[in-house]
Design a protein that fits this description.
The structure holds 2 protein chains of 2 kinds. By secondary structure, chain A is α+β, with helices and mostly antiparallel strands. Chain A has helices at 10-53, 58-62, 79-100, 106-114, 119-153, 157-187, 191-219, 242-246, 248-257, 283-303, 318-341, 347-374, 377-382, 384-409, 466-480, 513-523, 526-535, 566-582, 651-659, 733-742; strands at 65-71, 267-272, 418-426, 457-463, 490-498, 503-511, 545-550, 561-563, 597-603, 641-646, 672-679, 699-702, 728-730, 754-760, 764-770. In chain A, strand 5 and strand 6 form a beta hairpin. In chain A, helix 3 packs antiparallel against helix 5, helix 3 (79-100) packs across helix 6 (157-187) and helix 5 (119-153) runs antiparallel to helix 6. By secondary structure, chain B is α/β, with parallel strands linked by helices. Chain B starts with a strand and ends with a helix. Classes of the chains: A alpha+beta, B alpha/beta.
Chain lengths: 772, 299
């Protein structure tokens, strides 16, 4: 019996065999996601149904807003998202080794290269098998979740668009990892070398991007961080912080975040019918796919003349070794640059130190790697010229960032070029979690402003007048010319829409007090007020929130009144909007302004007893529409709230307060016995209540309340909390009165600014921001 | 027909093969011999398309074996380091090769399994080394190639199986007009089944001739003279090997036999004995430095 085919389709057979060999592998990420990840989705579906049954989604129903879809994973920044993405990446790398690993051993390569199939067809057929497998792996788990969404939430084009986005993003990620690994394997001769070098090559874009970003901050004074390179407009909003350079885990996380999809589309999505669904940006993933295909094409062409005698040997591709040395060396040099950049050394000294340390790091790194691979000092000496090439490449990068990037990208666009500009400005009213009722697991995304991460600030659009544009340009210029001693950690994002159709972005993450003060000028504009008024609308969508009026922060115990009344809340919001537009509600509340009290809109926070172990982060178990806590319930913690200071000029708001019988609460003051004033410093463990942004939100606790945030001394109570050495205690009544007028409940504070701890006569402790 | 033209292969700066030329006709069995590391495997891999020659080429029916994949569909390479798919059987490997060899015959494979006593459903990694070689040869012949490249494929077989294998190669080559190249260290076996043999000495082929005429231009003599002789006395000959023991001289000469014998007669030996050289003796003569006095090393 002879084989049936007289002229076998060797290409098709190789493709089919390759694909079938990978099928068991593709099940793994799908299974993992479904077993360990879909629980979140189905859990939230169940929770959503409970909320509906308890009448807590009635407001949303009135507004005809409903959950459109819910995909897992939920949001980026979570360790589990990283875990799943790493699983997909690992599966793709493993698949490449399964398909192309035959090149790395003599006995397997003998067989494959002597078969009646050309090398290019052999490579391409296996590559296509891998691509098909990747498509299946990326599609299958999310398709199953899409079907679940279809069954529970119904069909919607938005859901399928999101599914497509998630599929494309995961596909791009896996394709890139698979292609790079296949390319590396085709150039090398041993498994261990292929594993190490492909891993470094895969993360090298992130390493170089992170390295250049960090180098820019040191070598290109005045240049905006993260947006001085060619990835501008496609790079995701990396939360660049100096401390992340010091903390390797944070740095690695930042490097990998370049690859993590599933950040914009994850979690639940609720929208009202007729609202605009903001299209996803596929830019980054299209680049990854395109680059992958180019790499594959190059690999196929080079594979035609692969020297098979390298199979089983290490050190056979000095070019790839050199690339890895450049990528890792640039990244490590950037760590050194950041370290020295935060020191007292001059800019010129820092640049020299950076270049010198980079050269040393590369020389050492190259020597270690090359000797490990070639195992011969003689061979290492012969190949030393590759080190020279790597060092030259690194110096070119330094030169490019220091000279080219500085001159090209530090320029603030001319006023005549600008059509409009958006800028992130201090958001006077929101808390850390501003726009989401995070605890319920349902993220509310109402309009396109909320799609943009605002670094805890709003990105205000619509500055089009010449005066406004000039004001924003001055802010930009001030930031680009800051001296080291003037820097802080306010972040500003500028988005210029130019008349020629281009969009230019600038990001600064070290704005100081002067910049903040300049930004407050923009807060006083009509554009800001209108934008802020519009953004207050979201408050209407929060279901399980409390609205209460609080006396000034010196008051103890429970706020005066609690509402869970949507109509009344809507009425108050309308009053606040009117006062905002009239200019009487001043978002940039000047120190010294007479504050009668505060109105707080509270997001989904349950009244708790004053012990942390009774603090329920997941929301109330017994919340009902008519719930009204009393003094016996203890003190509310003012987390996740919006605070509106009430001044004498706010006619509409004051009318609301009076008509609802709340004005009596403004008279209920508790004396402050002592104020301790401290200064925020970077990375200070003494600042127990600041978050990563350095922003301080006022928190009020009874003295024996155990702090949520742990100091380096462990759990402490509010009264016990160690204060930094520079703390100054004030007990003089007149001084206390003066300070109280300056203190603000909502914090704009960050490093370099002061905060105050107030010890009240009833024993409570309040932390607040003290502007200069 | 296999034709190797000016083939040169380098590994880095080291030249492993230099300007190799030979031809293997249809139905001919060509033996490649040489010391360890001489370049036999490298040469076979260049012909098989596994290595790309730095200069020159290997042609099968005037088609380059490296660039033309279709010509490799009629060629089967049996390497010295055998590979089977993990946990595969003869059947499974047969299906693998049938995808790339259009004339693969499962009938032939079944029959050959019976001849060699191999279970086609047993896991190949459970076979001994010899059995694995037999399995690989079965697959090779079942593919019904026009060209068969065997790199030390007969090593490790017991005498009975070796005999069967030799007969199989001979019959297959004759019946299918298959060109076969065998590399081996077993010179007697090479001389038994090969038509032609070539000796590779490091980089080049030092001789390439029919097996029958290996000793044609070589002869071994033992001569007795009336006086003592030294190697210098034989400077006019192409001496491959000489041992002077006083009046008794044992030497191996290359060149025209009649001419050499005439020159020797002119030296008036008392006694002359003539011995034809075997392939092994020719091989050993070509591989200089093969004699060592180990007593010095181990004393």
């Amino acid at each position: 019996m002879i084989s049936r085919k007289s002229s076998p389709d060797s290409f098709g057979i190789t493709l089919r065999k390759g694909f079938m060999s990978l099928l068991p592998v593709c099940i793994i990420p799908a299974l993992a996601l479904i077993l360990f990840g879909s629980g979140g989705v189905f859990g939230r579906i169940s929770e959503y149904r409970q909320l509906v049954a308890r009448g807590m989604m009635s407001r949303a129903a009135e507004l005809k807003a409903e959950v459109i879809y819910d995909f897992f994973p939920d949001g980026d920044g979570e360790i589990i998202v990283m875990g799943f993405c790493l699983l997909f990446m690992a599966a793709a790398i493993f698949a490449a080794f399964l398909l192309f690993g035959f090149m790395l051993k003599k006995n397997t390569s003998n067989v494959y290269y002597s078969l009646g199939i050309s090398r290019s067809r052999l490579f391409v057929s296996k590559y296509l098998a891998g691509v098909l497998w990747i498509a299946l792996s990326a599609c299958l788990p999310f398709l199953i979740l899409a079907v679940a969404n279809l069954l529970f939430y119904g069909n919607s084009p938005e859901m399928w668009k999101t599914f497509l986005y998630i599929f494309i993003s995961v596909f791009a990620l896996m394709l890139f990892c698979f292609t790079v690994t296949a390319f590396v394997i085709s150039q090398l001769g041993s498994y261990i070398e292929a594993v190490i070098i492909s891993a470094v090559c895969i993360v090298s874009p992130g390493l170089i991007n992170r390295g250049i970003s960090a180098l820019l901050s040191v070598t290109a004074k005045g240049s905006p961080y993260n947006y001085g390179n060619w990835l501008s407009n496609f790079v995701s909003f990396l939360n660049y912080r100096h401390e992340l350079i010091y903390k390797p885990a944070g740095t690695i996380w930042d490097t990998f975040s370049l690859y993590f999809p599933l950040n914009t589309a994850s979690g639940s999505f609720m929208m009202a019918k007729g609202d605009e669904f903001v299209p996803f940006n596929y830019g980054k993933y299209i680049i990854f796919i395109f680059v992958s295909l180019v790499i594959a094409l190059i690999a196929a062409l080079l594979h035609n003349h692969r020297k098979n005698e390298k199979a089983g040997f290490m050190g056979t591709c000095p070019v790839l070794e050199g690339w890895c040395v450049v990528a890792v060396g640039t990244f490590l040099a950037s760590l050194v640059a950041s370290f020295f950049g935060n020191s007292e050394l001059g800019d010129g000294t820092v640049k020299v130190l950076t270049a010198a340390s980079g050269i040393v790091i590369m020389a050492v790194g190259y020597t270690v790697v090359d000797l490990f691979f070639v195992r011969s000092f003689k061979a290492y000496r012969k190949r030393l010229w590759h080190l020279a090439v790597s060092i030259c490449a690194f110096l070119i990068i330094i030169f490019a960032t220091g000279v080219v990037m500085n001159s090209v990208y530090s320029k603030v666009p001319d006023a005549c070029e600008i059509e409009s500009v958006s800028v992130s400005l201090p958001d006077a009213f929101s808390s850390d979690e501003g726009y989401s009722s995070y605890e319920s697991g349902i993220q509310l995304k109402i309009d396109k402003t909320l799609r943009v991460r605002s670094y805890d600030r709003m990105v205000v659009e619509g500055f089009e007048s010449r005066e406004d544009i000039e004001r924003i340009r001055e802010l930009n210029t001030l930031l680009s010319q800051q001296k080291k001693e003037d820097k802080g950690s306010y972040s500003f994002l500028f988005i210029y829409k130019l008349k020629n159709g281009r969009t230019v972005k600038r990001l600064y993450t070290d704005g100081g007090e002067a910049a903040f003060g300049k930004a407050l000028e923009a807060v006083k504009t009509d554009v800001y007020r209108q934008f802020a008024a519009k953004s207050l609308e979201y408050l209407n969508y929060i279901d399980a929130g409390y609205l209460f009026v609080s006396p000034n922060m010196s008051s103890a115990v429970i706020p005066a009144k609690l509402y869970n009344d949507y109509d009344r809340k809507a009425e108050l919001i309308r009053c606040l909007e009117k006062d905002l537009l009239a200019g009487t509600l001043d978002p940039a509340l000047a120190p010294g302004a007479e504050v009668l009290g505060y109105i707080c809109v509270h997001h989904y926070q349950v009244p708790t007893a004053a012990q942390s172990d009774e603090y329920n982060e997941n929301g109330p178990a017994t919340l009902t529409a008519d719930y009204s806590p009393t003094e016996d319930d203890g003190v509310l913690t003012l987390v996740n709230y919006n605070v509106f200071p009430v001044t004498a000029g706010m006619e509409n708001t004051l009318a609301f307060i009076k008509s609802n019988g709340l004005d009596g609460y403004f008279k209920n003051r508790v004396e402050t016995e002592e104020i301790t004033v401290c200064t925020c410093v970077p990375d200070s463990d003494d600042i127990a209540i600041s978050d990563d942004t350095g922003k301080i939100a006022a928190k009020k606790y009874p003295a024996d309340y155990v702090m949520e945030f742990y100091t380096e001394y462990g759990e402490v109570t509010a009264a016990q909390m160690e204060l930094p050495d520079n703390a100054q205690k004030v007990t003089d009544k007149a001084e206390i009165e003066k300070l109280e007028k300056k203190i603000r409940l909502t914090g704009y504070g960050c490093y370099g600014n002061k905060y105050a701890r107030l010890l009240l006569s009833d024993g409570t402790v309040v932390f607040a921001y003290l502007p200069e | 027909m296999i034709k190797v033209q000016n083939l040169t292969k380098k590994f880095g700066e080291k030249t492993v093969l230099e300007d190799i030329n030979f031809t293997v006709d249809k139905g001919s069995i060509y033996g490649l011999v040489g010391f360890n590391g001489a370049g036999k495997t490298t040469l076979i891999k260049c012909i098989a398309g596994v290595y790309e020659a730095d200069e020159g080429c290997a042609l099968i029916d005037s088609r380059n074996t490296f660039t033309d994949a279709a010509v490799r569909a009629g060629m089967f390479y049996v390497p010295d380091d055998i590979w089977f798919m993990p946990y595969s059987t003869l059947e499974k490997m047969g299906r693998f090769y049938s995808a790339y060899y259009p004339d693969f015959s499962f009938d032939t494979m079944d029959k050959l399994c019976e001849v060699f006593g191999l279970n086609k459903k047993a896991k190949l990694n459970s076979f001994s080394k010899g059995m694995q070689r037999q399995a690989e040869m079965i697959l090779a012949v079942s593919a019904q190639p026009k060209v068969l490249l065997l790199d030390e494929s007969l090593d490790g077989l017991d005498p009975a199986k070796r005999n069967i294998m030799n007969n199989m190669i001979l019959d297959y080559s004759a019946q299918k007009e298959c060109s076969v190249i065998i590399s081996s260290h077993n010179l007697s076996e090479i001389s038994d089944i090969c038509d032609r043999v070539a000796l590779i000495d490091g980089k080049r082929i030092v001789f390439d001739c029919c097996v029958d005429s290996v000793g044609e231009n070589r002869c071994k003599y033992r001569l007795v003279f009336t006086d003592d002789k030294t190697p210098e006395d034989f400077a006019g000959f192409d001496v491959k090997k000489i041992k002077c023991d006083g009046k008794i001289v044992t030497l191996s000469l290359k060149g025209d036999r009649e001419e050499n014998e005439a020159k020797l007669r002119a030296m008036s030996p008392v006694l002359t004995e003539t011995f034809p050289l075997t392939l092994e003796e020719v091989f050993l003569e070509e591989m200089e430095g093969s004699e060592h006095d180990f007593t010095e090393i181990f004393s």
